[in-house]
Every structure is written in C-alpha cells, then in structure tokens.
C-alpha cells in the first residue's frame, strides 16, 4: 500500500536560540518518513546541517527556507493536501488518528510544527489541530509520535538510498560501515 507524501512546515525560528531544535525537527522528520521540510526562517545553517546528514546517510530529504506559512498552507490545500497542526491545544491524537490515516492513504499531509508563538490564523488554516497530550511538550517529541502513529510503524521499513554511511544494527556496540 503506497502512502502519500509528508512534508513538515516549521513555523518561526530564532537563529540564536532555535537552530539546534529546528535541525532536530528536520532530522526527526527525515528519519520518520517525511520527504522534506519548509522553514519560515531564512536560516541556511539549518538547511546545511540537514543536507549534510542526507549526504552522509542517504535518502532524498529536502529543505526549503524563507517560506511564507500562509502561502505554503494555501498552496498545499489547493493541491488537495491535508494540513495537520501539532499543538497542545488541539484534539488528542488518538481521537483523530484513524481519520488521518484514511486521509494519508490518498492525500499528501503537511505537518505544521511551531517554535515561538504560533500565529492565531494557523489554527483556522489547518484542517486538523492535533494534540499529543494537552500539556506543554517538545515539538520534536510531538512530531516523532505523530509520524509514528500516522504511519503505524511502517516508517521503520523505509530504506535510505545513497549516502556514504550505513548503520549495521547490533545488540551491543556500534557498527557503522562506509558504503562502496
């Protein structure tokens, strides 16, 4: 069963404070099945860090910076995609995940993840405002849980083509091999 595309839209980013967290949002998205990330920030260092990981570890994850969130969301919806905003104020994920999985079978999903204060219109622009618990939490953790639940664990079956390095799973120790 072929699923649709997942793209993460990262809202806000304070370069002096959020570079590491935004990079981790992108790395989590990449590792757990998203095909790319849109950043409202113009911080090229985040894109460069993620592109370096893609070069080393494979896959075709992309990053685009300096994106207008309103424009990106409107274009996504006009193309028939679904917009899911992860927020602690939303409906708890278990109540909507079945519907979202149905949508994901036939529609592309944009996952909106905030940083600083999320603009109020995002709540209205999103098709779904989803909470991973109604408590303050990390956007990285919320994204990881959402991507796992949405894909029902299938993201772990994904292969990362290309790249220079590959981990050989091992019960004890670390085993990384350089591809030929």
TrEMBL record:
**Residues given in the record as S-adenosyl-L-methionine binding sites:** 86, 114-118, 132-139
Keyword Cytoplasm listed? The answer is yes
Q: Which one of the record's GO molecular function terms can you name?
A: tRNA (cytidine(56)-2'-O)-methyltransferase activity
EC class name: transferase
What are the EC numbers?
A: 2.1.1.206
Q: Does the keyword tRNA-binding apply?
A: no
Transmembrane region positions?
none
What is the top-level taxon of the source organism? Answer: Archaea
State where the protein is found. Answer: Cytoplasm
Q: Which GO terms describe its biological process?
A: tRNA nucleoside ribose methylation
Which reaction is recorded as catalysed by this protein? cytidine(56) in tRNA + S-adenosyl-L-methionine = 2'-O-methylcytidine(56) in tRNA + S-adenosyl-L-homocysteine + H(+)
- Pfam families (UniProt xref): Trm56
Q: Which keywords does UniProt give here?
A: Cytoplasm, Methyltransferase, S-adenosyl-L-methionine, Transferase, tRNA processing
Q: Name one GO cellular component term.
A: cytoplasm
What is the protein's known function? Answer: Specifically catalyzes the AdoMet-dependent 2'-O-ribose methylation of cytidine at position 56 in tRNAs.
Q: How does it assemble?
A: Homodimer.
- Name it: tRNA (cytidine(56)-2'-O)-methyltransferase
Supply the source organism for this entry. Methanocella conradii (strain DSM 24694 / JCM 17849 / CGMCC 1.5162 / HZ254)
């Amino acid at each position: 069963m072929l699923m649709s595309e997942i793209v993460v839209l990262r809202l806000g980013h304070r370069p002096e404070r959020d570079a590491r967290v935004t990079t981790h949002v992108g790395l989590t998205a990449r590792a757990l099945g998203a095909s790319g990330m849109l950043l409202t920030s113009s911080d090229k260092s985040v894109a460069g860090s993620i592109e370096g990981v893609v070069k080393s570890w494979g896959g075709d994850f992309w990053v685009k910076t300096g994106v207008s969130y309103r424009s990106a969301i409107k274009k996504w919806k006009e193309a028939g995609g679904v917009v899911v905003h992860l927020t602690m104020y939303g409906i708890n994920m278990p109540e909507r995940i079945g519907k979202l999985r149905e949508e994901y079978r036939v529609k592309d999903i944009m996952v909106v993840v905030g940083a600083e204060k999320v603009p109020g219109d995002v709540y209205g622009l999103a098709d779904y405002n989803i909470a991973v618990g109604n408590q303050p939490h990390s956007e990285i953790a919320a994204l990881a849980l959402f991507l796992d639940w949405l894909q029902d664990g299938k993201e772990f079956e994904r292969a990362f083509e290309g790249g220079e390095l590959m981990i050989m799973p091992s019960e004890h120790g670390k085993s990384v091999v350089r591809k030929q």
